[in-house]
Amino acid sequence: MGTVGDTATGDRCRRVLFFPLPYQGHINPMFQLAGLLHARGFAVTVFHAQFNAPDASRHPAYDFVPVPGDSMPGDSPDVVQATLEHILAVNRACEAPFRERLAALLEQQRAREDVACLVADAHLLTLLDVARGLRVPTLALRTGSAACFRWFTAFPMLCDKGYLPAQESQLDTPVIELPPYGVGDLPSTSSAAAHAQLREVISRAVAAVTTSSGLILNTFDALETDELASLRRDLAVPVFDVGPLHKLSPAASSSLLRQDRGCLDWLDAQAPASVLYVSFGSLASMSASDLKETAWSIANSGHPFLWVLRPGLVRGAPPSQQQPPLPDGFHATTHGRGMVVRWAPQEEVLAHPAVGGFWTHCGWNSTLESVCAGVPMLCRPCFGDQKGNARYVYHAWRIGLTLDGELERGKVEAAISALMGAGETGAELRRRALEFKSSAAESIGEAGSSCLNVDKLVNHIQSLQL
What we know:
Layout: E1 8-9, E2 12-13, E3 15-19, H1 24-39, E4 43-49, E5 63-67, H2 79-107, H3 111-114, E6 115-121, H4 125-133, E7 138-142, H5 146-153, H6 155-160, H7 192-210, E8 215-217, H8 225-234, E9 239-241, H9 245-248, H10 262-268, E10 275-279, H11 288-301, E11 305-308, H12 330-334, E12 338-341, H13 346-351, E13 355-360, H14 364-373, E14 377-379, H15 386-396, E15 400-402, H16 409-420, H17 424-444, H18 449-463
Parallel strand pairs: 3-4, 3-6, 4-5, 6-7, 7-8, 8-9, 10-11, 10-13, 11-12, 13-14, 14-15
Antiparallel strand pairs: 1-2
């Protein structure tokens, strides 16, 4: 790979502008990419919405430009619909102030010749259009899998052939054009209006990619060989799979919640591969009854556990609630065997030798971090791309199990025992997981696929001209 300073022009560095979608799962890979490119000699400017604004003090080498005017997420009980509405609202609200601030930056002496491009989340089509209108080249970052973007591009076909909107009676039907997906793995909505919003958001993400100068993906070739080949065949823009970004990037943490690092000390005292790590990400939620079943499943499993209970995890809880209350008797039953925290340094937790399994919502960041750590998964997807990610985990890659239907403690206890136990199922899952861990390490090693793609991305950015 190249070295720091490769991107300098005379005594100046070329500058890459970034704009993340303001959600934790989108902010993390954007900042990891910024850290990777900064280490290769690019100067970094981060434009950001006011909602979930990043902490600039953690990144003293970057310039930050706040963009006012974005809205807060709605309070709809349907998290999918609320998220779709907010994505569209952020695009509308940030358009004018972003144009003003980007134009001001370009008017600064020598800035125009120094700026290489804008890298923005693919869900920010409006802001990518603004940049191109000011003659700034753009690259789109997709923070999901290659497989996920493949079904984004296929969305009109899925609707035309009747797979979507998904019907309850057809959830087990295979999507023959997109194996290994079934209809139930595709995103579902609760109403015709929500389906129209979903279609708009997906079509805009595809347009953001196809009208930019390239697509950046946080994945690696050995994990999604066929899916990446399909995208390269079907898209008219270059595709750069440069993941796993959290392994390649030196960037500081961009967590929006304070991480409880004391859990790492607790893990140090546990036996190897003995701990079940439980976390459902930054956005997924569950009912109060599901929380109760989850708690007693963990308690009755008998395994040591580290459980992330973040604010807002339980639907309908008051906003002031800092941590969901656990059922009476839970702490007494699990005394000395587990630890409950509001938020954890997940990459370090998964890499810890004491962790033997991960009960996850299957967001792409969590899935990729678990793959890289060689930790098998127990999948409980909630919405969006999570069901498709889970399908790959248990069906295609065979490095996990899935929990379908209602949460029932007996069923969940059995799944935990299979995942964590010494039996044939657990042993095979661990063996497969370690194989993928090895593949991930190879991808970022010298002459690895992702390492080479970083070089290609750097050269591509250098070739872009305003």
